């Protein structure tokens, strides 16, 4: 045989082999096993896209603890769904790796795994952020409530001294009581300043500096009628008697469950 004839025969054998491989691949693609894997991958893709849509349409985060706990609960549910989808994806990968390779479908499998990993990472990051935000909110609201109660107790002390006829600049034991009261009020003012900083941090962490529930509660406690500044003026004799003012009530933070 001539070299050209040998080359032609080799070419024919190669083409025949390619046809066999192509026929086998098409047969695999039409097999029930292949169709079942394809349907499962389509279903998993729909589930991932639905979860992705949920994560992208999250409501704005508020600074109250009840809302944050609800957000953490919903995020944990999403993480649970992603874990189940991850198990299903690994099952498809383990059961159909050879079949998917023959169908050149590994790229689709890898794309699903990449999308799943991205969503899982986002959910985990959001949960860490929400839990840090919840801890910050709990510190703020608890501290604000404690401060309001302390201000109420201080107001009662001022009322008691005034009703006893004591004056801030008086002599004797009452003068010492007024001095001790001033120290307590200074400490309360320091706590209020700290809470103000904490409130600003909470609002900034929520992603929106305009949080009326936070600012209103701070204003209610630090207002000129009941705040430490008002008490200081009273102790200094520069304000009207405390008996003419309303009692200090604790702030009404959002309910925690």
How many strands, which pairing sense, and closed or not: the largest β-sheet? none
Q: Work out the strand percent.
A: under 5%
Please state the CA-atom Rg, rounded to the nearest Å.
35 Å
Structural class: mainly alpha
* Share of helix, binned: over 70%
Identify the CATH class of the largest domain.
Mainly Alpha
Record field, number of beta strands: 0
Discrete helix count:
7
Low-pLDDT sequence parts:
1-6, 236-257
Could you say which overall geometry the principal axes of the C-alpha atoms support? Answer: rod-shaped
CATH architecture of the largest domain: Up-down Bundle
Distance between the first and last residues' Cα: 90 Å
Q: How many separate structural domains?
A: 2
H/E order of the elements?
HHHHHHH
* Average pLDDT: 70
In CATH terms, what is the fold-level topology of the largest domain? Methane Monooxygenase Hydroxylase, Chain G, domain 1
Region (Disordered): 235-257
What does this structure look like?
With 257 residues, this protein is mainly α. The chain has two domains: 3-133, Methane Monooxygenase Hydroxylase, Chain G, domain 1; 138-244. It contains seven helices and no strands. The chain has helices at 3-30, 32-56, 65-102, 106-163, 173-205, 212-222, 228-235. Helix 2 (32-56) runs antiparallel to helix 3 (65-102), helix 3 runs antiparallel to helix 4 (106-163) and helix 4 (106-163) runs antiparallel to helix 5. The N and C termini lie far apart (90 Å). The model is unreliable at 1-6 and 236-257 (pLDDT under 50).
């Amino acid at each position: 045989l001539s070299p050209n004839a040998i080359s032609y025969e080799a070419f024919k054998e190669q083409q025949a082999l390619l046809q066999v491989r192509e026929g086998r691949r098409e047969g695999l693609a039409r097999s029930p096993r292949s169709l079942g894997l394809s349907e499962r991958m389509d279903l998993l893709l729909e589930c991932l896209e639905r979860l992705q849509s949920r994560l992208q349409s999250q409501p704005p985060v508020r600074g109250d603890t009840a809302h944050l706990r609800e957000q953490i609960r919903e995020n944990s549910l999403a993480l649970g769904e992603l874990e189940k989808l991850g198990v299903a994806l690994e099952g498809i990968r383990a059961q159909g790796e050879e079949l998917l390779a023959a169908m050149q479908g590994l790229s689709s499998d890898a794309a699903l795994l990449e999308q799943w990993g991205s969503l899982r990472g986002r959910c985990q990051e959001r949960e860490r952020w929400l839990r840090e935000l919840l801890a910050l909110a709990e510190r703020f609201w608890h501290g604000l409530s404690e401060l309001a109660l302390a201000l109420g107790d201080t107001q009662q002390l001022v009322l008691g001294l005034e009703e006893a006829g004591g004056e801030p600049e008086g002599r004797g034991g009452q003068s010492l009581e007024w001095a001790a009261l001033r120290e307590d009020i200074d400490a309360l003012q320091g706590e209020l300043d700290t809470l103000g900083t904490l409130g600003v941090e909470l609002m900034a962490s929520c992603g929106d500096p305009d949080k009326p529930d936070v600012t209103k509660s701070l204003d209610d406690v630090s207002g000129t009628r009941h705040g430490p500044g008002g008490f200081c003026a009273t102790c200094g004799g520069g304000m009207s008697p405390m008996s003419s003012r309303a009692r200090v009530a604790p702030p009404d933070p959002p309910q925690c469950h």
